[in-house]
Amino acid sequence: MLVRLALAAAALTVLLPAAAQASSPSFVDRVVDTGAVKRVQATAAQNDQTLAIPTKEGYSVSVSFGSGVPVNQELAQSYVGFLDALPHGSELDKLSMVIADQAEVATLCGGDEGDGILACYGSRGMQMIVPSSGLQTTTEDGGYTTAYVLTHEYGHHIAANRKNQGFQAIDYGPKFWASYELVCDRALGNRLFPGDEGRSYLRNPGEAWAEAYARLTFPDQPWTFTSLLRPDATALDAARRDVLTPWTKNASRTFIMAGSRSTQSFGVPLTLDGRVSAVVRGRSGSDVGVTVTSGRQKVGHSDTRGARNQWTLRSGCRERPTETLTFKVTRTSGGGPVTLLVSYPG
Q: Which residues constitute the signal peptide according to the record (predicted)?
């Protein structure tokens, strides 16, 4: 199929990522559920002090400390200042952070100290839970600095604040990157597993997106996730666009079939995945319809009797960088021009 109706995203799990799927140390974190966020919030409430750290753009990041870490203004400012220097938008103003020792990070993120969990992100609370070791400290396996860990987690925060109509950006990645990487088509083919924080962690595009985002700042970090999503220059350009000039809404095109015709086809090229809809309108008393194809594949149609018909594809998935949808407009009775309005992601 060239354009498909996307299946629901895989259910989030809290199982450990599969081990040893790459030669380099694998990044291990979690996108946590509501229960984990509540545990974090309860821990932060037990601590007497939460700091509001300003950014250079006038935003403010709320920083709390785990039970085993004293309140540390300098550490909080170094973390927020680092995030402020990353590629970002206004979503920084929505972020909160808990800084904890590594053992408590693992607990708050729903695991155990021996699980190797470096950090986590709660999408509902927009909260990063990160280690207190300082920006340039490396993890026990030496694979990552704390600065890199913060960057990966901020990638999740970017996704939580981006639109990807037809999909959950936190699971699939934001619109431009996910579309370029054909995430939807690959997920339908069981090659990628959106939202899977368990066995297929390294094939979870939400995690690969966070890694791709980190490459904007750390281009030389070894890639340990699925080779399907190893970013090339175009993927990094798409990621940068998702951060700085994100997709916000569908484009639209209007076509007119002249009253002298009873059928006419119109092509719309798709370069992004997502929701596609078409509305066809004729004069009162006429019967109009529309049939949608991609190549030789019939994608859908709407031809109930009447002067107006509407067709919608909730989550259209491309198999190639550009695919053309053809909208064949028909009028089976009545006269006058027929208008076709197409809404598509781009």
A: 1-22
